[in-house]
Structures are given as C-alpha cells and as structure tokens.
Fold:
Amino acid sequence: MGIEGVGARVARKEDKRFITGAGRYVEDMVVPGMKHAAFVRSPHAHAEIKKIDVKKAQAMPGVIGVLTGKELKADGIGNLICGWMIHSKDGSPMKMGAWSPLAFDRVRYVGDAVVVVVAETKGQARDAAEAVDITYEELKAVVDAPKALERSAPQIHPEADGNLIFDWELGDSTATNAAIKAAAHVTRMKIVNNRLVPNAMEPRAALGYYDKAEDHYTCWTTSQNPHLARLVMSAFYNVAPENKLRVIAPDVGGGFGSKIYIYPEEIICLWASKKTAVPVKWVADRTESFLADAHGRDHVSTVEMAFDKDNRITALKVDTIANLGAYMSLFSSCVPTYLYATLLSGQYDIPAIHANVRAVYTNTAPVDAYRGAGRPEATYLLERTMETAAREMGVSPAELRRKNFITSFPHQTPVIMNYDAGDYAASLDAAMEAADYAGFAQRKAAARANGKLRGIGMSCYIEACGLAPSAAVGSLGAGVGLWESAEVRVNAAGTIEVLTGSHSHGQGHETTFAQLVNQRFGVPIDSVSIVHGDTDKVQMGMGTYGSRSGAVGMSAVAKALDKVEAKAKKIAAHLLEADEGDIVIEDGALKVTGTDRQVPWFQMALAAYTAHNLPGGMEPGLKETSFYDPSNFTFPAGCYVCEVEIDPETGVTEIVQFVAADDFGNIINPMIVEGQVHGGIAQGIGQALLEGTRYDASGQLLTASYMDYTMPRADDLPSFVVSTSNTPCPGNPLGIKGCGEAGAIGSPPAVINAITDAIGITDIAMPASPSTVWAAIRATTKH
Amino acid sequence: MSDISLTVNGKRVGGVTEDRTLLVHFLRENLGLTGTHVGCDTSQCGACVVHVDGKAVKSCTMLAVQASGSTIATIEGLADGAELHPVQAAFKEHHGLQCGFCTPGMIMTATDMINRHPEGLEEATVRAELEGNICRCTGYHNIVKAILAASETMAKGAAKGKARQAA
Structure:
C-alpha cells in the first residue's frame, strides 16, 4: 500500500470546495432567464378535487404561468410508476394505482402536488401559490397500514381492492409450520418498525431548462442516479427522448435513498420550462421535504422463532404488513420483499423460513428505500427476537447467537440468498472485547448504586449489498439491470480521467476511485479526476445506493483498468524491446522486471497518442470502458454492542458506549469507511431513540419540521468505537462488500435490546423517547 | 424595498432588497455567496450560520435589512488566501464532512465556539454547543474530533503569537 493507494487513510480530494463554500449544489445553479416554481400541495390526506381556480393567481405580480394536472395530462406526460414487479402468491401482479405528477381528480396524501406556479421570484411564486383556489370534497383517510386493510377503511385507489397492493410470500410454509409445532421452545413477538423521514440536509431541488432551438432539455437535479432519472423520465414519463434530455446531478447534499426516485417536481420543472419558455427552478423547503420526500420503514410484523431442545433455531415464521403510503414509489415494492424477506436468515443457520408480506396503500407520503431498505427491518425483527428468546430460555444472548451462527461458506439460506464468505464469530468476539462485555455486571451494579438503570444489548446483522446482479434482480421483477459502467481515459501527458456511473453525494468517490488508480499505476491521485453525475459525460450508469459503489462501481473501474494496463504494457514492451510479460508497473513507470530499463507512465501515454512507434496493428489512444455485472450480492456483516444508562426519574437514555465490529471485506480508505459507519449508527440510534413520524388520524403530518421531528444532534450521541475484520468478498475483483448501510441496519436492535435489558421488559416502541421510557419504567414498578 | 449597505468578507457591498428578504437569501442571491446554505425553515439546522459583527448567527433568522451596517463573515471569507483556516484544515484532516452541505455552517459555528473558549474545549462542551447544527452524514464523531483538534491548533498558534510578542 502506497501513501495514496488502496488501504490508505487519504484525506479527501473533494473537501476543498466544501470547506471553502465552493460546493455546487442544484440550488446554487443559475442560468440566464431562470424563474422560480412553487407548488400548491394538498392540505387534505384524501379528497376529491372539485374545482381548481387559477385566475387570481395568474394575475398576481411576477407570475409567468400557473399550470395544472389536466394540462400535464393533455401534453402526454405519463404517470409515475413503480419499477419492480411483485406478484402476489395467487400469481396476480401487484395492484399499482395511478400517480399523476400533478393530481387532477383526487388527492391521496397531505403534500400531494396539485398546481405549479412559475414566477419571477421565489417569493412571488409562493404568494401566487397561496392565491390558487382549489375546492376539495374531503374523504375519509387512513394512515395506519393494518387499519387500511380493514373492511371499513376508505378505498384509496380503484386498482387496489381493500388497499392491498400485493400479498406475497417467500419460503416453505409447510416445513416452517411443522418445525414450529415440533419445537421445544417458540418465541413470539409483535415487532413494529417505525416510519422515518430520511432528511438529507440538502432539500430536494430541480432546475429544468428547455432549449427551443435544439428541442432539448437539461435537468439539474438532486439525484443519486442521474442516468436512471433520464431513462425513467424518457421511457416512462414521456418528458423527452433520451438524446434530447441531459440530466446533471452536481454536488448533492446527502441522499440516504430518498434521492434515488424520480419525483413529480423534476418532471414538472422540465415540462413547465417548455410551457412557460423560461428555465424553471424549484427548491423544496424543509416542510415540503417532510411532506413529499419518500419516507422509510413502517412495518408491522408478527414473528415466531422456534428452537429445539439444544437451543438451535429450527424455524422462523414472519407475517408483515408494509405501509407503502399513497402511491407506489419507484422501488417501493422490492423493499419489503426481496430486500427484506431474503435477509430473514440473518447470520443464522435456519432450516425453515416462511415470510408473508402484505403491502398496503394509506393516505401518507410514499414509502421507499431509506438507508438499509428492508434489511434494517429484517435485522430489527430477528435481533429483537433473538434477544427475547435468550431471555426467555435463560441463556446468554451472545452464546445463543454464537450457537446458531453459520460457519461454513458458501451457505444457501432457505430464502434465496447464497452467502459467499463471512466470519460472524470474529465480529462477535471483537465487539464483546471492545465493549468489555465481561465487565458489564460490575458497571450495572455501580450504576444502580447511583440510581441509574444500565443495560447492554447486541445485534448481529447481515445485509445483501452491491445491488446487482442484473440477471438475478431481473428474475425477481426488477425493471432495470444493476450493473455499473466505467471508462478510463489516459490523457496524452499521462493524467487520467475515470468516468463512472456511480454518483457521489458524500461517499468520497473522487478520492477512493482515484486511490484505486494510484494503486494500479502509481500515479498521484491529484493527476486522476473522477467524472460522474452528468449524462452527457458518462454514457450510462445505475448510480449509488445499496452500498453498491465500491463493490460494483469500483469493480467496473478495476475491469477498465485491466484493459488499460494490458494495452499500456504492450506499448511499453514495444518501446523497451522487451517481452510484454516482463513489464511491471511501479511508482509511475513501466519497468522491465529485474532490470533498470523503464519508461515513465507519461511517456508511454504520449507514445499511445503520437502513435509514431506503436506495435503493429495497434490503434492509437489509451481509453477503455467496462460494464461490470457481478455474479452475486455481497454480504457485509458484523456485531454491534450498545450500552445505555437510563435515568428512571426522567426516562432519559444516555448511550454510554457504542461498539461496532464490521466485516466489509477489503477496504479502500479506512477513514471514509469509518465515517460511513459513524453516520449509519447515528441514523440507527435516531430511529431507536429520537425519530418518530406522526400522522394524526385525519392524515395530517404532525412532525413536518425540525421543531417536531427529532433529528439526532451531537449531544444525543457518543463517540463510537469502531473496528473492522476482513473476509474478502470472493464475488468481485476487489474483494469489497460495501459499508454504506451497515450502521443504520445493525444499530436499532442493539439500542432497544440495551434499553429493554436496563428496564427489564420485553419490548418498547421506537423511538424510545424519554416519555416512552419513563412510562415503561413506571409500568414495571406499579405492581 | 430597502437600500442596505454592509461589509461582507472585508468588502463594502450594498443593494436594494425586499424588506422580507432574509440575510441568507441576500448573501446567496444578491452577492452570489452560495456557500451559506438553507437546510430548514425553522432556524434549527444551522447550515446558514455566518458571523455578524463577530458572532455566529443563523442568517435565516435575520432580515437582510437588519444586517445593514454590520460586518459579515461567511465561509467564503474564512481562509487566508490560499491558506485554509485551522478549522477548515481540521475538518479535512479528520474527515469532518461527507456531503458537505452542513459543513459551512458547522465550520462557522466551530470557529465562533473556539473563539469563545480560549481556555480550550472538551468533547462534552463541543457536543453541547453544536446543538444548533444538524449533520445527517457523519454522526458528528469526526466533526467533534475536528473541532477539538482545531481548538488545540489555534491555542498553540495563539501561544506562539504571545511568545513572539513577549520576545
């Protein structure tokens, strides 16, 4: 490892612009003649639109256009779709209701976009938006998923009878039921996974620019995957053909899944730009983000976990109701199915598993993937149940887990996944040691003497990352392939551009991808530029989510580097009159191994472009591309241990220690990986302790600002103790598993296991806020 | 509409602005200083923190007209030419940022915090005083580390300065 190579803690190249205020986010973009959009959104969770009167708004100062859904429909702009087909167990396809980017006949959640106003200034657009007069006839609303399945619930979409989108199953129900019947012990729980709002700090924004002369559209958007945005807007929403639509995602201020999807606003900014003949920019305010960004989680499940007399798990049966909100967002259907039920084996050897999942419509914001996406829900369910089982059976939670660990690989689970590599005991041991698990009893006693309740909890998670492979996800219903592309351009003087379909919105690709090149060719990372986020520069890509940029995106780069290396060696061998097999690349030069003969990297590059002296038949230039499609998912795994101290007088929970021991396979930049883990844990602790999304019964979102929705702040969290072990992933050329979601997946059950341990109860609702914890403590002392 | 004039990053600037214009929008839209960000509508997130007459202020909580006559420092004015301010350097060295959106506000808050605590900082103080700045990426771990490191660097710098003066 060089000082800038793979494995080095290299400070980030991209930081300079961010720390000096020179970042370029969509809101910072200005194009000549640009005007501003404001949306009129539904104040009702469920209502018929009787009349839309825009006359008064049209006459307001600065107003350029006031546009409605009827006009959008007349122009042929398509409905928003969910791109992953799920079939119910009776074989019928999922029941997808129509989602018009601007509602024209009915609104289905508070925040549903109805009218867009374009005006000279943002203030004028907002003033005019307030003057739009819409007559609604309110309908009964339902926000709770189980209630939406009741007979008395209002019907939200005509396409989905009883609000049921699909009733899907995975696994062997007969074998599972038989094993439960024969079990020595069965642990049964009801598990609720609370709804979360992703809350990237940069609100979503879009700038649409229609060039009349060229009949061409440009969209600057806060996207994790601009190419997917172009594909979907072109192929399904009829915005423009692909060659007439350029999508640019410049610096993007966090995503966490919420910026994967193509939302109404970017489609409307493009369409409105053509309608009004001005570039149109929209920037969400925070309340709009709360109302109209895709939310995450929101599962209600029952679980039965069966054990034999030796405390080995014999079966797992899960029944889940997943709330998908008012419309099916782009990947909403795969989250509670193939990203969830396929992970229900966890780190354990479970012979029989059966999961049933019902996805339902409610009058709430659409729900889709949020950091972890399905895997946090699976992990929470499993690890809460494991903990409860250990307590019921009177055995150590750590040893119960250890006893049931999968220890030989590859391992085929009963729920599709084939785990390729791992060492779960290594992570468990590392976490227990770092947490001084053995010394806990003493700390608990000391806390008790101080009038505090101390608890410890653990969680052993596994996830499937590197979302891919295309053929596999295609067979499961995905509408897209999940490979990644890369292009490596060696310039004539030896500097290098790497074009990638991955998108960096905080992950540090400009540094880590350059480290990969440094490792291979010894060129300084400052002479390597990473190009991403623009469909005019990078031909095609699938973007960044599901911890896929390292395992899939960098693997594509590695494949392209292979090709560059092969050609570079041929050129060098020719120049040095040596055998190509004897050429090695070291310290920025191509050398004949065992001799002092060498040609500097830049000279080889120059030779490729002057083409004065190339091997016979070789084309000039040095540029290679690769499309990489892996053969399997990757399986990061680890063990988290959380220790809490609760003040029984106030119900305030302090996290006194949080330990993470992860196995991410090979690591490119440990500093960046640790940062990903820190951030993920903070979001997981947020879910467990702080973040509650509350709709009232009429469908009003009560937590639609930072005054009401508790974001984790610095003084809510400790410093984290993190470490990694490494069983390299055999499925990709770099041995990378991915690290982006682990923290958010592994931490919530560790926190709740610690709190329930401290109080001596079986379960507590997330977020375990001080009032919830206080009430739980009071309930235990009443008798 | 009002005529305002103020000093921003050492330069006298002015303009005509609507009375309802917030300082943050004046900085971003009139002056093109887009390093100061807007992350919420309720003065909670701190992405918009600037220094007004030497104090950290959420520029979304102040009208531009209120700032007339004031001296403002934004993230763009913090570095000394090509040389990064110690807080900027520490955020880079300790990976105190990921997506970068909250970063300008964090750095301006941190600079103010360090200035107010010449005696030095402890982790608990840093965490408590970051209450008005939200970051969704880093879990604050490395932000806290960066601020503590910058505080030490700046204390050493100040001590050296004093020693030079004494000599």
Q: What stands out?
A: Chain A has four domains: 24-139+204-283, 144-193+294-388, 420-463+634-783, 483-628.
